[in-house]
């Protein structure tokens, strides 16, 4: 039995009641219960997370998917594993996750907590939790009005890492910003030991193009996407660190998934795209560090389906609709690549919002390679969202056939246009709040059974 002070006890009980009421009345609500608990006891997280081996997952892109993959792996060996699967990745949401799963009875079994954490919240979380592992997926420009440039994001993460020097860092070695860090932690790197393409010229709109040591332009043995790859600086000698976990070969990539080799072993990733190979490699690396068996990793990667809004496939009146979250140029470019893998007749919807969680400045869409879509024969191009006209202008400038444009200023119109598509498969590429809100709309119509 846990011995806790009265303030913490009240915080836990109150938050648990609010969580139950939120699920009953609002079908969710992951942040408010945590805010209440923290108001009662600001240190409550250190108590409710006490007996867990915690894996923190952060980075710009891929956090939710990577967290889901790691969780699938660890719950295969421990039934006491938990995760913040709703995507509530700031301090209140993480606190609520631990409180919801908290028991006043002690357990002798190993307990894992696989926690997605917003980059800016890493220092807030590590104030109270000392994770076994902190893993960082990548660093791309994202919500510039909130985070600033990638160097600012890196500093926030490093501030959090400095509070937990005993945590092992599992980092993307292909991310030039994450090499040769001034930290006390043990560091292990993962990356591609495989040439995805012959391209060695970084795109003009790529992030982190200049050496973190001497500011000279990077050179590459090969590029995977954006600024990720086997980088080196010909001026000062800074280069990609030695990799402990690698992609050795990509046997096949389709619109459904990828067949790959990690460290000499074959795995099927049940989600498409190079970025999901990175997510799977990150999850694999954490699992190997934790000592998990290859068979456990294999089964998890083969069976883990997409998280909500992350390549989630829905059936809408016999139309197959795949929702892909897009939030910055790097992620949008990879989503576009997913469309190019598809050999079926398709339509596509683009939903652009500029709410706080999306980033108020939408000029980033001009850094996305929409021109690549002009080679795809899309039956219908549906455009929606708060910034509907900005997206329409961008797609027109990219050379897409504007005669196939359909502008929808309401979700009701958007749904009707999807239902009336000539094609049986429709992609929806949506920014964060548009994805969340459209899913809520579809839930109200009965097309989504589980909102979170």
Automatic annotation (TrEMBL):
Its EC number is 6.3.5.13. The keyword Cell wall biogenesis/degradation applies. It catalyses: beta-D-GlcNAc-(1->4)-Mur2Ac(oyl-L-Ala-gamma-D-Glu-L-Lys-D-Ala-D-Ala)-di-trans,octa-cis-undecaprenyl diphosphate + L-glutamine + ATP + H2O = beta-D-GlcNAc-(1->4)-Mur2Ac(oyl-L-Ala-D-isoglutaminyl-L-Lys-D-Ala-D-Ala)-di-trans,octa-cis-undecaprenyl diphosphate + L-glutamate + ADP + phosphate + H(+); beta-D-GlcNAc-(1->4)-Mur2Ac(oyl-L-Ala-gamma-D-Glu-L-Lys-D-Ala-D-Ala)-di-trans,octa-cis-undecaprenyl diphosphate + ATP = beta-D-GlcNAc-(1->4)-Mur2Ac(oyl-L-Ala-gamma-D-O-P-Glu-L-Lys-D-Ala-D-Ala)-di-trans,octa-cis-undecaprenyl diphosphate + ADP; beta-D-GlcNAc-(1->4)-Mur2Ac(oyl-L-Ala-gamma-D-O-P-Glu-L-Lys-D-Ala-D-Ala)-di-trans,octa-cis-undecaprenyl diphosphate + NH4(+) = beta-D-GlcNAc-(1->4)-Mur2Ac(oyl-L-Ala-D-isoglutaminyl-L-Lys-D-Ala-D-Ala)-di-trans,octa-cis-undecaprenyl diphosphate + phosphate + H(+). The active site is at residue 361. Gene3D superfamilies: Mur-like, catalytic domain (3.40.1190.10). Keywords: ATP-binding, Cell shape, Cell wall biogenesis/degradation, Ligase, Metal-binding, Nucleotide-binding, Peptidoglycan synthesis, Zinc. The keyword Isomerase does not apply. Residues 325-435 form the Lipid II isoglutaminyl synthase (glutamine-hydrolyzing) subunit MurT C-terminal domain. Pathway: Cell wall biogenesis; peptidoglycan biosynthesis. Pfam families: Mur_ligase_M, MurT_C. InterPro entries: Lipid_II_synth_MurT (IPR043703), Mur-like_cat_sf (IPR036565), Mur_ligase_cen (IPR013221), MurT_C (IPR013564). Zn(2+) binds at residues 211, 214, 233, 236. It is an enzyme of class 6 (ligase). One of its GO terms (molecular function) is ligase activity. The lipid II isoglutaminyl synthase complex catalyzes the formation of alpha-D-isoglutamine in the cell wall lipid II stem peptide. The MurT subunit catalyzes the ATP-dependent amidation of D-glutamate residue of lipid II, converting it to an isoglutamine residue. HAMAP family: Lipid_II_synth_MurT. Belongs to the MurCDEF family. MurT subfamily. Forms a heterodimer with GatD. This is Lipid II isoglutaminyl synthase (glutamine-hydrolyzing) subunit MurT. It comes from Clostridium rhizosphaerae. The gene is murT.
